[in-house]
Design goal:
The chain is an alpha+beta fold and 195 residues long. The chain is built from four helices and eight strands; from the N terminus they run βαββαββαββαβ. Strands 1, 2, 3, 4, 5, 6, 7 and 8 form an eight-stranded antiparallel sheet that branches. The N and C termini lie close together (6 Å).
C-alpha cells in the first residue's frame, strides 16, 4: 500500500483589530500565500519525495494566477504554515493515523498556520492506493475497461494511470487478490506486481 497526502485550503481568517494593535504594518491584510480552494498533493513514491522539498511543486489547483503562491514552482510553503502542517503530512505519507480519536476519520486533520492575525485553515487527507503494474495495456479503451471493472471492487474509489503503473485508490483495506482478479478479468492484460 502506498500513500499520498492532499492538503486543501478550506478557509482564511483575518483579525484586523489585532493587526492594527500589534503589526508593524497595521494594514497587512489576509495571507497572500494561500487562497481558499488551493489544493496541494504530496507524493513519496519512486523518485518523488515532495515532503523533503517543503512542498515545492505540490500546488495542483488554485484560482490565483500571480507568482508567489505557496507550493508553486518557485515558492515552497510559508514557514508558519509548514511548521503547522508538516508533521501531519509526514504521518500521512508513512501511512499513519493523522489524528486518531480527534477527527471522525483518522486519515484527516483540520489545522491552521500559527499566524495569529491572519491564520489559514487546512484540511489534510491521507490518500491510500495500490501501485499496480499491468502488462498488456495498449490503448485508452483498455484503461477505461480496467477503470470501470475496478470501480466494482468494494473499497476502490478511483483509478489513475501513470507511466508504467496504475494507482488504485482505496478507502479501506482491499485484498490485492481481488484487485488482480478484477484487472486480469478484463482479458489481455497481466498484473506484474503490486506495491
Amino acid at each position: 500500500m502506498q500513500h499520498k497526502v492532499k492538503v486543501t485550503v478550506i478557509d482564511k481568517k483575518l483579525y484586523p483589530e489585532l493587526q492594527a494593535q500589534y503589526c508593524a504594518d497595521p494594514q497587512s491584510g489576509a495571507c497572500p500565500c494561500y487562497h481558499v480552494g488551493d489544493e496541494f498533493l504530496f507524493e513519496r513514491y519512486g523518485g518523488a519525495d515532495d515532503f523533503w522539498h517543503m512542498g515545492l511543486n505540490t500546488l495542483k489547483q488554485t484560482s490565483y494566477t500571480a507568482e508567489g503562491t505557496a507550493g508553486g514552482s518557485a515558492f515552497p510553503h510559508c514557514s508558519e504554515a509548514w511548521d503547522a502542517i508538516a508533521r501531519y503530512i509526514y504521518t500521512g505519507l508513512q501511512g499513519g493515523a493523522i489524528m486518531r480519536g480527534w477527527m471522525k476519520d483518522k486519515r484527516v486533520m483540520i489545522t491552521c498556520c500559527s499566524d495569529g492575525t491572519r491564520p489559514v485553515i487546512f484540511k489534510i487527507e491521507r490518500m491510500d492506493y495500490l501501485a499496480v503494474y499491468i502488462d498488456g495495456i495498449t490503448c485508452e479503451n483498455c484503461r477505461e475497461r480496467i477503470r470501470n471493472t475496478l470501480a466494482s471492487v468494494e473499497g476502490v474509489t478511483d483509478v489513475a494511470f501513470r507511466d508504467g503503473f496504475a494507482e488504485v485508490f482505496v478507502n479501506q483495506k482491499v485484498e490485492e487478490q481481488a484487485v488482480k482478479a478484477a484487472v486480469e478479468g478484463c482479458g489481455g492484460v497481466t498484473v506484474l506486481k503490486m506495491e
